[in-house]
Amino acid sequence: MTELTKLTLAEVRDGLAKGEYTSVELTEAFLGAMEAHKALNAYIVSSPDVALERAKASDARRAKGEVLGPMDGAPVAIKDLFCTEGVQTTAASKILEGFKPQYESTVSGKLRSGGAVMLGKTNLDEFAMGSANITSAYGNVVSPWVAEDDPEKLVPGGSSGGSAAAVSAHLCLAATGTDTGGSIRQPAAFTGIVGLKPTYGRCSRWGIVAFASSLDQAGPMTRTVRDAAIMLGQMAGFDPKDSTSAKVELPDFEKALTGDIRGLKVGIPKEYRPDGLNSEIAALWDQGVEWLKDAGAEVVEISLPHTDKALATYYIVAPAEASSNLARYDGVRYGLRVENGGNLDEMYMKTRAKGFGKEVKRRILIGTYVLSAGYYDAYYLKAQKVRALIAQDFAEAFKKVDLILTPTAPSDAFPIAGGAKVDPITMYLNDVFTVPASLAGVPAMSIPGGLSQRGLPLGLQLIGRPFDEETILRAAGVMEAAAEFSAVPTLLRGTK
Amino acid sequence: MSYIIQGETGPWEVVIGLEVHAQVISNAKLFSGASATFGGDPNTHVAFLDSGMPGMLPVINAECVRQAVKTGLGLNAVINRRSIFDRKNYFYADLPLGYQISQFAHPIVGEGTIILDLKDGTSREVGIERLHLEIDAGKSLHDQHPSKSFIDLNRAGVALMEIVSKPDMRSPEEAGAYLKKLRAILRYLGTCDGNMEEGSMRADVNVSVRHPGEPLRTRCEIKNVNSVRFVMQAIEYEAQRHVEVYEQGGIIEQETRLFDSNKGNTRPMRSKEFAHDYRYFPDPDLLPLEFSQEFVDEIKAGLPELPDAKKARFIADYGITPYDAGVLVAEKETAAYFEAAAEGYDAKAVANWVMGDLFAALNRTGRDITDSPVAPENIGKLVNLIKDDTISGRIAKEVFEIMVETGDAPDKIVEERGLKQVTDTGAIEAVVDQVIAANPDKVAEVKAGKEKLLGWFVGQVMKASQGKANPGILNEMLKKKLLG
Hints:
The complex is a heterodimer of chains A (496) and B (484). Chain A has 496 residues and is an alpha/beta fold.
C-alpha cells in the first residue's frame, strides 16, 4: 500500500486542489495496486488506457483552473453491472462476454462527466444474484480479510463483492455498487467499508444491467462516511430517461455531516433480534446503541411486524422481475450465441443453457414459476401485498423515529469453499437484515462497527426515511467517529 | 339482417368479436423516442431500447397517450385516468425484450360503443370492451435467405392501440361494417391511418356459433387478418367449420388460427401444448400512467365532428337519405368534398352526382377524392344547368365526362361546345316534322296502336338535334302529332 492509495476521497479532493499530487500519479498508484493484488480477482477487466487518458485530461483541466467537481481526477472502480461506453460490460455472465456497450449508464456517466477516472470494472455475482460473489462466470472474488483462526480464503460478500474487495484492499479510491436486497450493504459489512443504498429512485437505473427493476438501486462504496456523502452527490439526481427516477432536490450530502445528533430519535426493531442471533452481532448492535446515546440521541424500541415475511417476499418479487428482465439475453442480437443448425427455440435453449450460471437459472425458474398461470395469485400477487405491508411497517415506524439501527448481516464473512457447499436458502439468509429496506425502497447504509473475535469486520445498518440520506449520513458520521474503526485488511498488513 | 346457417340440428347463429390493432399516428415510438414513420431502410429506426440492449428503460411518449385518449373519446368510451403497463412475456426473434409492454388488467380506455350503418339503412350498436396501449414487435423476414431469417426492428416499439369489441356482431357483414366504421372514426380523429395493406390496422377475429338463445360456445381466434374482405371471408369459413364439427358430434377447441387468403380457409396456428403462458405482471420500469381530468377535457374540446354527428347533420341540413349520408361521411375527405359541392346548390342532386358519376370516374382513373379532377363547386354548377333546363340530363353526363377530362367548369364546356338544350318549340317542331315526313310507315304503325315506337321517334329527333332538344317538349309534341 503506497501513501497515495491510503488516501480517502475527501483527502484526494483537497490534495489535488493543492497540487500535492496529480491524478495521473494517483491513477498509476492504483493501477499498480490492482496489478499487485490480481489474485483477489476484484476486477473483471481493468481499463488502464481509459484511466490514464481521463487522468491526464483531468490534470490538464486543473492546470487551466477548471475543475468539474469534487471527484475530478479521483480514480474509482465501476461495478461491472453498469454499462460503460466502449468498455466490456458482462454482469459477470458468460452470456454477455465481449459485450461493449455503445452507451454509458447515467450513474457512471455522471461520475465520468464529473471528472472521475475509471480504473476498471469490478467483479460481482452473476447478474448481481448472490451474497458471496461465488456465482461470477469470471471467478470468485477473494476477500482481503483472513480470519485469525483459519487461513481459508473468505468471501467478500455479494453481489458487489469486487467493489467491496477493491475498496477494502485500496485498489481504488471508491467504487460504485448496486443493491437489490443487500448487495452494497452486506459486502460492505464483510470487508469493513462503508456502503450506502440510497432511496429507490435517488440514482438513475438507466444503463445498469437490470436484475429486479423495482428494487435495484446504485450507491457508493467507500472507506469513510464522508467519502460516501461526496460520491453519492456525484451519482444521484433525477434522470428523465428512468421513469422511476425521483424528481427530488439533490442536497449537498457532505453538509449533513455536522457531527450533531442530539435529540435524534433512533428505533431498535425488536424483530431483528431473533432467538439465536449471533452473540457477537448482538453485542455490536448494543455497542452501536451506546454510541448513539452517548452522542445525545434518544433510542427507543420499535416494531416492524412483518419483518419475518420479508425474505420470502423478496425471493418471489426479485426472481419474478429477473425472469422477465433476463429474457432479452437470447443470443439474437449481442453476446453469446450457441447454434448448430437447429431452429430458433433450440438456439435459445442452447444459448441460455450455456450462457447462464446455476444461480441465475435457479432464479429464472423461480421467477417464471411464480408468474405462471395458476400460481400468480398465490405467489406474486400475495408477495406484492406483503411488500406493501412491509413498506407500511417502515412508514409507521418513521412516524415515531428518525432512524432505525440494525446489524447489517447475521454473521461475519464465511469461507469461499464453505459458501459453495451452502444450500441456497441458507445463502439467502445473509440478506435477512437488508432485504426489508429494499422492499420498502427506503435508504440504508452499512458502516463498519468493529471486528469479530476472529478479527473479521462487522457492520451496522442505519435505515432512514425516503430521500433522507442526510440523516443517515449524519448519524453514520457520529458512529464512525465513535467506532474508531481502523483495522487494516489482513492482506495489507505489514505493507506501507 | 339475420345471418343464420341452417344445419341439420336447426339454425345456427354466428357470434363475432373483433380485436383491432391500430397503429397510433405519432412521430416517435411509444417508449423509445425512435422514429415511428413507416418505411425506411431495415433497422434504421431503432433505439437501444427497441433492440433490447441491457439497462435500457422505457419512457412513455405523451403524444401516444393523447392519441389513445382521443380515440377513447371518439368511441364514447370511459377514460381511465389511471392505467397500468404490464409485461406480456414470450420469446420470439423479433421481440427483442423478450416481452411486449402492454396493458392487461387496467387499460387506458374502458367500455364504449360504435354505431354500425348497415346496407339496408338500419343501424346497430356494437359495444367496445376496452382500448389499451402496447408496443408492436419487429418484422421477421423469412424469404431473404435459404436458411436464415432476417429481422427488421423499425416497427419494434411503435405504439399500437388494441381495440377490443364485445361479442356483439352476428354476421360477416356486421363485422365488415364495424371495421369500416372504426376505421372512419380513427381517420376522422387522426389517431390511425387505418391502412390495412401496410399493416397499420390489423384484426384478430373471434368466432363462435350457437343455436339462438343458447349461452356462448367455444370461440376460435383468427389472427392478423389484413383486409375487410378477408375478415368477412374468414368468418364465413370459420362459422361453417364450427357448424360442421358440431353437427358431426365433434367439439371445438379454443385455439388460435390463421386465415389463408389464397385458399379462403383457416388452419390452427399452434397446438394447445405450445400455447403461451404470457406471465403478465406490472412492468416495474414504468409507474402507473396517470393524468388529470383537465388533460382529458382539453382533448375533448379539440375533437373534430365525427361520422355519426356529421351524418345526422347531413340528413337534417341537406335533406338527403340516411343511406346517402352514411356513404358520404364514411371518409372524412368525401364528406368535406360533398359539403363544398352542395353549398348553395340542390344537395340531393349533388349527392347523387358525387356518389354516382364522380365515384365511378375516380375509380376508373384511380384517383383520390382529394385530387379529384372535378372541383366541388363545378358539381353544383352542373346540377344548376340541368335544373334551369340549360342542358338535359343526358347531355349533362357528357358534360361531366368532359369535366373529368379537362377539369373545366360545366358552363364553359356547354358554351364552347354549343351543348345548350333547344327549348325553341319552332326549331324542335321543324325537326319533328322532318322525321315524321321521312318515315310514313312507322307513323302508320304508331297510329295503329304500336305506341312503343314513340321512343324510336324521340331517338331520331334527338339524333338529328345532336341531343340538344328538350326531351319534355319533344315528347309532348310527338304525342300530339302522332296520336292526336
